[in-house]
Amino acid sequence: MDAVLRSAAIYLFLLLIFRLSGKRTLAQITTFDMILLLIISEVTQQAMIGDDFSVTQALLAITTLVGLDVGLSLWKQRSPKLERLIDSVPVLILEHGRPIPERMKQLRIDESDILDAARELQGLERLEQIKYAVLERSGNISIIPQEG
Amino acid sequence: MTRPHRVGDLEIRQDLEFHRREVRAENVGWAVMLLILLAALLGLFGSGPLSKATAQAAGGGLTVKYNRFARYLAPAELTLTFSPDSIQEGGLHVWLSREFLQHVQIQQITPEPDSVQLEGQRLTYTFKALKTGQPQQVVFQLEMQAIGTLKGAAGLAGTSAQAGQAEEVQFSSFIYP
User: Which of A37, A72, A87 corresponds to the end of one domain?
Assistant: First the structure.
């Protein structure tokens, strides 16, 4: 019983704290983000299974996590509001070569982040070559190049 | 799924009102995280200055130091300090309530008790002690086995009959899951 409750509590807490920390916080932009994720997983593991190292406990924990995830995705399909709440929304941060400073400040993105994505994804050199830049729900920036 | 809107040439489900609310919620969330961390540093979730509590018996013979906040399956400590007068012939006799002991696991008692006696709702520990005129101390190292509020009581055995006042201490801890 406690494996299910523990896993559910951890799942919901992680959902909340990652959501509140913002889309960009753990989007694996730097090596340190990845290290942070590893450390978090290590801490989480202890709380989920406690000192019961049986296979049953592990199976129950995994089933709870995957079950909650599937359940939530089914619910999200029916309710766009819930989907928005859990997955956030994409935000346009650059339009026709002109960054939108207010939104970028709110999302903690600067021009170099956009240029970074432009180089990596499209091989672009300057902001003016970008038609649209969007911060996706995943925390990644997608780039649509200027035509012609 | 709501239909994507059109922004310029982009078909995108942009919702700037939601975005603004989200930014506000994030700011509130950070403030809450900061408060939680401060509270944790102060000891609201376990070890820390706010968690340390002391209770003294009416007669002054027994002082109990305990954790106001503890955590499930985590170590905790109960320190009993006895005034020089509380040492009776043959040693110290101190009891703890069964209600408390049922919900903790005693890892170690320093020093080891000489004997333990069941007395209904109490468990009386006897420690050999010499009357040296100095206060004595016994430390119980515990592991909390329950979640929620845990009430406990400790006292000097036999004092209520002799001096007319019970050397008894009540204490209560909150145990986080």
Answer: A87
